[in-house]
């Protein structure tokens, strides 16, 4: 078995959902989306889970999932805090949210010393992605000058919500390697087509759903780039985010990282909007009927 680690980003504010969406019951016995992701990850061979949360949801988080998961797999917690900044920087007046996915991963630098995968707490990825990424993590070799990484790419049409538009990292790849990634907002169905702000996008485009695989060498790059980001917030100090896809894209463009694209045919679903919840619950019931999961994940 591998010794790889799974990082789960669960510190999001959940503003569009209208609450702490990561802790919303979705399975028939009160399971949340993270339960299914962790179940798939452990079956694929991951040995440790690190939850990235906010301090203010720690108690609820432990009660809803943390105490249960700790009986299944080794677990640790790190806290993403917007006040956790490099020396010489302070939080702009009026800001209320953490600094994005790059800061979330950087918060793990003292508890992760193995290859690791990264996922969102409120996304269901399917079993195929965990199997592929765990197998690939076992082969990756990085140096400080050239890091190896991987990402699971999903078919764009399999990642959309029926209840509103979404933001996706649209990926360009050549010979199985990522050559570019563009964060694209307002993507949704326009009749039978997929479009963003009226511009059609092929439904079979490869989309990033923040399912990444890295080696610990990335922490040094995050430490270097976070102050650079904070020094130039682009005139948007209250909402600017240190985003993982942007960081990866920059590293690829600079020739400092090679990212292998691992394609998954599984259908994504999640709770971007509160109206997505009934569909997610029905989707898990369907997967259980198909035998993909037992009715009770943990007995």
Describe the protein in words:
The chain is an alpha/beta fold and 299 residues long. 26% of the residues lie in helices and 27% in strands. The protein has seven helices and 13 strands. It has helices at residues 33-44, 58-69, 101-106, 127-137, 218-231, 244-253, 277-289; strands at residues 5-9, 48-53, 74-79, 116-120, 123-124, 147-155, 166-174, 177-190, 193-196, 199-201, 206-214, 257-264, 269-270. The protein is globular.
Q: What's the quick description here?
A:
Helices cover 26% and strands 27% of the residues. It is built from seven helices and 13 strands.
Output mean pLDDT: 91
Question: What's the story with the biggest beta sheet?
Answer: 11 strands, mixed
C-alpha Rg, in Å? 18 Å
The ordered H/E elements are: EHEHEHEEHEEEEEEHHEEH
Apparent shape: globular
- Beta-strand content bin: 25-35%
Note poorly predicted spans. 13-18
| Class by alpha and beta content | alpha/beta
Q: Give me the count of strands.
A: 13
Helix content: 25-40%
Secondary structure tally, helices: 7
Distance between the termini: 23 Å
Task: Set down the secondary structure blueprint.
Layout lengths: L4 E5 L23 H12 L3 E6 L4 H12 L4 E6 L21 H6 L9 E5 L2 E2 L2 H11 L9 E9 L10 E9 L2 E14 L2 E4 L2 E3 L4 E9 L3 H14 L12 H10 L3 E8 L4 E2 L6 H13 L10
Search tags:
single chain, 299 residues, alpha/beta, eleven-stranded mixed sheet, two-stranded antiparallel sheet, 13 strands, 27% strand, globular
